[in-house]
């Protein structure tokens, strides 16, 4: 059975109620809150605070602050009035109905959040695709414009070169006509045809001059150009949103640190053999003792392993399984919670370990008749392995017990 918290305090004015609940040294991460317009529940195993409010509140405007060992709730009243007391006296059937309505309301809110998240992701993907297509079109138009400009410039240069060649050919033709018309050669020097006299006396004795004509001028080389090419940037506002690479790297880093985090200051190490100083060896020994049915000896092995290294989640999870067999239900809940805290971040590599820890903690809750808390753990395990039919069957049974359609079987 859970330990009911009764040392809470509360104050009020005409429009607000303030409730202060001590957390009994429980970590903030282990506190679960359910609040509706007429019901408030704070679960921090093994403790439980539950109140059926005297009047109705506006849950949307209410808020909770958890920290420094207390949970402070500021509840906004729907009507400005002073309550005679915090609790209202209703029968068990009405209490059961209010609890069920609160669970249904919480599930509906979670479904709405999931739907809104899916819609937002689709909109962001659509925006990313439209942006990428727009950038690609702009880049394609820019490149085409550069090609057209380069083509036009090359055409102009080609026309200029052809005109120049035509004029050179005309000048040479005129020069040849003039040379053939008279006895004396006519020398003509133009800008486009460089014809100069050359004296060759190497093979003559009379010093006769001969004419040597230079070759025709060639067109100037085309001016060099440089075309800059840039790749289209890909825009993803939600880059790596679905990727688990950072979480997996963080998990591997935590595992490596856990292997190195051995407490060498324990006095018991002096009396232990070499293999007994290895947490992994102690875990395997505890597993063998558990399979043999010697649960207390397995607990002792896990205890020593945890003293050596408190960062290995399997030691806590397996010790929780032993406590379930020994009916130490509160200890099973604590060990399962500690294992789940160490099994972060949630990645595929530790999915099987998280499933076992959720099932063990959920089983302990159900044995304590805390079926709502147990259902939450079984649902979390079912999300990890949706194809597990046995797990789905157990979840449905717990839900039927909460709804009152099935009587819980005594263990």
Automatic annotation (TrEMBL):
Biased composition (Polar residues): 200-210
Region annotated Disordered, chain positions: 200-223
Name the record gives this protein: Dynein axonemal assembly factor 4
Broad class of the protein's primary localization: other
Any one GO BP annotation for this protein: heart development
CS domain residues: 3-87
Source species, domain of life: Eukaryota
Family matches, as Pfam families: CS
Any GO CC annotation of this UniProt entry: neuron projection
Keywords assigned by UniProt, alphabetized: Cell projection, Coiled coil, Cytoplasm, Neurogenesis, Nucleus, Repeat, TPR repeat
Intracellular or extracellular location(s): Cell projection, Neuron projection; Dynein axonemal particle; Nucleus
Ranges in coiled-coil conformation: 92-149
TPR repeat intervals: 355-388
GO molecular function, one term: nuclear estrogen receptor binding
Keyword Kinase carried by entry: no
Keyword Nucleotide-binding: no
UniProt organism field: Anabarilius grahami (Kanglang fish)
């Amino acid at each position: 059975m859970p330990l009911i918290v009764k040392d809470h305090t509360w104050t009020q004015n005409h429009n607000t109620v303030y409730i202060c609940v001590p957390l009994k040294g429980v970590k903030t991460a282990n506190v679960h809150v359910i609040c509706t317009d007429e019901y408030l529940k704070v679960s921090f195993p093994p403790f439980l605070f539950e109140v059926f409010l005297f009047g109705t509140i506006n849950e949307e405007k209410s808020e909770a602050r958890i920290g420094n060992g207390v949970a402070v709730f500021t509840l906004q009243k729907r009507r400005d009035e002073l309550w005679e007391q915090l609790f209202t006296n209703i029968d068990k059937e009405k209490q059961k109905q209010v609890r069920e309505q609160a669970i249904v309301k919480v599930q509906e809110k979670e479904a709405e959040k999931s739907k809104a998240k899916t819609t937002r992701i689709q909109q962001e993907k659509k925006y990313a695709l439209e942006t990428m297509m727009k950038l690609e079109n702009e880049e394609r138009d820019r490149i085409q414009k550069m090609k057209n400009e380069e083509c036009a410039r090359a055409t102009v240069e080609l026309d200029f070169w052809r005109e120049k060649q035509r004029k050179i050919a005309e000048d040479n033709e005129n020069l040849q006509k003039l040379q053939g018309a008279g006895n004396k050669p006519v020398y003509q020097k133009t800008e486009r045809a460089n014809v100069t006299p050359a004296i060759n006396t190497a093979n003559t004795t009379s010093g006769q001059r001969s004419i040597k004509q230079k070759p025709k001028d060639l067109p100037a080389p085309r001016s060099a150009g440089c075309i800059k090419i840039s790749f289209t940037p890909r825009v993803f506002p939600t880059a790596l949103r679905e990727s688990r690479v950072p979480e997996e790297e963080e998990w591997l880093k935590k595992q490596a640190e856990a292997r190195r985090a051995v407490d060498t200051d324990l006095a018991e190490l002096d009396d232990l053999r070499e293999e007994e100083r290895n947490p992994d060896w102690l875990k395997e020994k505890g597993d063998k003792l558990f399979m043999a049915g010697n649960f207390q000896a397995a607990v002792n092995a896990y205890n020593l392993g945890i003293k050596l290294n408190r960062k290995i989640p399997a030691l806590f999870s397996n010790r929780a399984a032993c406590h379930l067999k020994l009916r130490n239900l509160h200890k099973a809940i604590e060990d399962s919670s500690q294992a789940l805290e160490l099994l972060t971040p949630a990645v595929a590599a530790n999915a099987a370990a998280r499933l076992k820890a959720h099932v063990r903690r959920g089983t302990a809750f159900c044995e304590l008749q805390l079926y709502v808390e147990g259902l939450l753990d079984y649902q979390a395990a079912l999300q990890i392995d949706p194809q597990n039919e046995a797990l789905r069957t157990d979840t449905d049974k717990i839900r039927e017990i909460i709804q009152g359609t099935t009587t819980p079987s005594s263990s």
